[in-house]
Amino acid sequence: MAERNFVSTTPPAVGIAEVLRRRLPTGRVVTDPDIVAGLSHDQAVWAPVGRAVAVVRAKSTDEVRTVVRACLEQGVPLVARGAGTGLSGGANAVEGGVILALDGMDRVLEVDQLERLAVVQPGVVNDDLRAHVAALGLWYPPDPASSPWSTMGGNVATNAGGVCCVKYGVTRDYVLGLEVVTGTGEVVRLGRRTSKGVAGYDLVGLMVGAEGTLGVVTEITVRLRRLPPVGVTAVGYFDSVGQAGDAVRATAAAGLRPAALELVDRHCLRAVDAWKNMGLSAEADVVLLARFDDDGRAAEEGARRMVDCFRGAGSTWADRSETEEEAKMLFAARRLAFPALERLGPVLTEDVCVPIGAVAEMLARIDRTAERHRITIANIAHVGDGNLHPLLVTERGDAAAQVRARAAFDDIIADALELGGTVTGEHGVGLLKRPGLTRELGPAVLEMHRAVKRALDPAGILNPGKVFGQA
Amino acid sequence: MAERNFVSTTPPAVGIAEVLRRRLPTGRVVTDPDIVAGLSHDQAVWAPVGRAVAVVRAKSTDEVRTVVRACLEQGVPLVARGAGTGLSGGANAVEGGVILALDGMDRVLEVDQLERLAVVQPGVVNDDLRAHVAALGLWYPPDPASSPWSTMGGNVATNAGGVCCVKYGVTRDYVLGLEVVTGTGEVVRLGRRTSKGVAGYDLVGLMVGAEGTLGVVTEITVRLRRLPPVGVTAVGYFDSVGQAGDAVRATAAAGLRPAALELVDRHCLRAVDAWKNMGLSAEADVVLLARFDDDGRAAEEGARRMVDCFRGAGSTWADRSETEEEAKMLFAARRLAFPALERLGPVLTEDVCVPIGAVAEMLARIDRTAERHRITIANIAHVGDGNLHPLLVTERGDAAAQVRARAAFDDIIADALELGGTVTGEHGVGLLKRPGLTRELGPAVLEMHRAVKRALDPAGILNPGKVFGQA
């Protein structure tokens, strides 16, 4: 794994740990420094990590409430975490704080086929929920790349996106209700189980994406959909990211509505080939992958029109995939891109989102940024909704390259904002995007954030310092 | 129109009105008592109305900011309004306050075909936006019954729903960004223009449905969709609301996904026939109307399966409509139900939402409530998402019947909550649903609402007393 800023190995203070041990069942409170350190960070390289005092492995809402109340009494910061697959430092420990590990609250509490909803604990892994409801012909759409490991609590905290969001929306679009332990230590139920409802403020939507700064989520009620058909895949090979960006624009202009539209560039293809020898990089510089999952013949029609768009935009080759195996292989290559690149060194994952019309220009600017700072920037992208993930790869231990990568990271954020985009499409602000957020929102909107934070977490104990600075 | 609680005709104080006259262009500030009274309420019968001091007809964001700042200086409450078609008293004047009429800010500022979004001022009428974008093959889905008159600002304030929401979602699902004059008199831009984004708290979602209590919306950026096909309509006639409720349950269990599923009962059919002589009430006691707008043959297949569900649930007659004219006639009858009933006397419109599995039971309880309180309760419903609109009809001037109607209104709310529903599906809380909201949310969640309100409207001038009581 990547370098991290662990600063000390001195034993932590034990005040809050002792208080928690007295109030919680045996085994819940862990202070072993190695375990605490291992659970003190997510997967964001270079994000600072504080020294936590203890980890609590909570098993119930009552235990979570006990932890929140103890932290309130003692004025100790609290960081909730799931699987730690975040990419922005949002779950990184705060100095002197407690880590509240929720991965042990991992039960699917209910699936209601008629109302098409599921109720889960925050530690349920995304793919486990999918598998559970698929057996009933139902589907939970949001599919972050981390879905085999990431938890629903973490998905809610970051408002996670994924591949199918271009058609089906993101986590917030599926969360109907939440049980939350508030910043004042109360257990509340927010939202509803009905398909519509306007009773009061949208506190559910506010909690989703708040990265644990406004409450600790202890139960999640999500909408489900009918499991869609497997679908039809269209593939296009291009000689440059610029051409691929033009093709994406053409598909949007044509009104196509794929269930996925992904981009994988030559750096990723080469890294995947170097690892798995799939032979992709010999055929294309950039691959666009689209899937249509409409009913009946509409999917084939969509794929056919997508292939036309690809060809019209100058693809070197484009067709619908012959077999489902071929389609699976191509999507597998897309999923393997990130771990394949990680084999080459620490990968700093960017996550900007720009308007569709600006995709080609943004990709071109990313290429120029890579040249200017003399680093490798690979690109995978949920390109159908303009959500780009430039991957900044440096060699392990090359401090100078890391400095250049950070400068490139800043330039990418500046370009995304200049093109009318946002500094984070789906990974969240955490620590890495705090400066970008400040630029994007401006002082008045930032002050609204601080006011909401003070309102719902008056003691400031919930994941303080994340998303935006302290009030 | 209906009885209202106007209490006085004495001339209002002029302090704030004079301040506003000095700061705004000529003609913006109106203090004529008749005009002020006419703009001091929405369409909710029996909701209390305060005496406003003045109406301001704002023409720009700058003017709105001027009004908010003047009200802040003077400590005067401010109620923003659009067309006044609300049904919960949300836009009713507050005693001694200013009415900020935004219907004059009625320009469509931008339609971006590629990004599929529109930017509008709050006074744009819903149907005008639809017509504007339809010319480009695009569609703004949320379609409240008030769409020919209601404004986008009002739709945002109430998070308006409508007929097609069962498939396409409600207003909040389409609002990407807002310009807002805050409770501290600043002009801010919230949200984004990209299809995804997680930069900070979902303040856009928080503003939508907040009924003007957290800010004054001066510009709205909405997502658009491709204009769908006209679609295919399925119709079912039933002998009782119970059978119709069972049919709705069966369609949900079958996994059908219509673009509309509406219920119209015998009271409505009779009232429409008495007015327009459409001959519907002779054929059916209850009508279910479903529309499928999928591409290609999927719509016909959906309608066919829907007819099977209707027949399986005991319809006296069910079929797909032969012609588009026939389908239009049936949906017209549904739209005419409310004005047809209003011809009989003041109509108190309920708006509860229950789980699909509870629709039949809820409709049966509504019938028993009507009997118990000896009043007429007609039913129209967006029944596909469990959103029922019992219409409590009383004779004009029958004070005793009004008392009974209010008791029935309370009973309906209690039943909806008992069946796992919500006190308002799409009309908002305003004044009429305040007691219901208190029951639904409970004290801890209500306190969270108050804390958010204090955070974003520290002076408490924005539509005070609506949604929930003062802190």
UniProtKB/TrEMBL annotation, chains A, B:
Q: Which cofactor does it need?
A: FAD
Drop me one GO molecular function for this one: FAD binding
FAD-binding PCMH-type domain residues are 48-227
Q: What InterPro entries does UniProt report for this protein, alphabetically?
A: FAD-bd_oxidored_4_C (IPR004113), FAD-bd_PCMH (IPR016166), FAD-bd_PCMH-like_sf (IPR036318), FAD-bd_PCMH_sub2 (IPR016169), FAD-linked_Oxase-like_C (IPR016164), FAD-linked_OxidoTrans_Type4 (IPR051914), Oxid_FAD_bind_N (IPR006094), Vanillyl_alc_oxidase_C-sub2 (IPR016171)
Which UniProt keywords are listed?
Answer: FAD, Flavoprotein, Oxidoreductase
Pfam families from the entry?
FAD-oxidase_C (PF02913), FAD_binding_4 (PF01565)
Family, similarity comment: Belongs to the FAD-binding oxidoreductase/transferase type 4 family.
Which PANTHER family does the annotation name? GLYCOLATE OXIDASE SUBUNIT GLCD
The protein here is known as FAD-linked oxidase
Instruction: Please give the organism.
Output: Streptomyces rapamycinicus (strain ATCC 29253 / DSM 41530 / NRRL 5491 / AYB-994)
Q: Which lineage ranks, top first, belong to the organism behind this chain?
A: Bacteria, Bacillati, Actinomycetota, Actinomycetes, Kitasatosporales
